[in-house]
Amino acid sequence: MSIHYLNCLTIRPYFPRVIGGVTCLLAETNLGPVLVDTAVGIRNYQSKGLMRVFLKGLRSKFDLNETALYQVQRLGYKPEDVKHVVITHMHLDHAGGLPDFPHADIHIFELEYEHIMRRPGWEFLPRHWAHRPKWVVHH
User: Fold this and answer.
1) Can you give the chain as a three-state secondary structure string?
2) What are the two backbone dihedrals, phi and then psi, of residue 18, each rounded to the nearest 5 degrees?
3) What is the Cα–Cα distance from 86 to 14, expressed in whole angstroms?
4) Pick the residue with more confidence: 108 or 50?
5) Tens digit of each residue's pLDDT (9 = 90 or more) over 87-96
6) Angstrom distance (rounded) from CA 124 to CA 1
7) Is residue 20 predicted with pLDDT exceeding 80?
């Protein structure tokens, strides 16, 4: 098995003065490529409103080449090749790219799933799962 580390969002916030980001993983498995987190997706860079403010506040590079989708494609895969996405948590900077992988089963912890379905706050954007993904809930 090979695991690829993908820098899917570079940030340079004003405070604290750091350079950071969001790391996604692509594991090449016998089930095909499995993506761990999706970070920010294509639509996030094109959207207005909260996501735009969030990315500007973090001084994101707004670079589509950093999206998980583009990086998966550079590794030679099509979006539909990714049949499984494991989400560590549903914050907008970790799950924003879910719509970029509409054919994937989304693996999520039960408590996280129940939380986002009951009362998503500002850090969760329901449009990230508006495409009605197939959820695989884990206990």
Assistant:
1) CEEEEEEEEEECCCCCCCCEEEEEEEEEECCEEEEECCECCHHHHHCCCHHHHHHHHCCCCCCHHHCHHHHHHHCCCCHHHCCEEECCCCCHHHHCCHHHCCCCEEEEEHHHHHHHHHCCCCCCCHHHHCCCCEEEEEC
2) -135, 165
3) 31
4) 108
5) 999 999 999 9
6) 32
7) yes
pTM tops 0.90: yes
| CA–CA separation, 127 and 139 (whole Å) | 24
Residue with tokens 């494991």: 86
What CA–CA distances, in Å, run from 96 to 22, 30, 34, 124?
Answer: 11, 26, 17, 9
Quote the pLDDT of residue 50. Answer: 85
- Mean pLDDT within 53-77: 95
Token pair 């884990």 is found at: 138
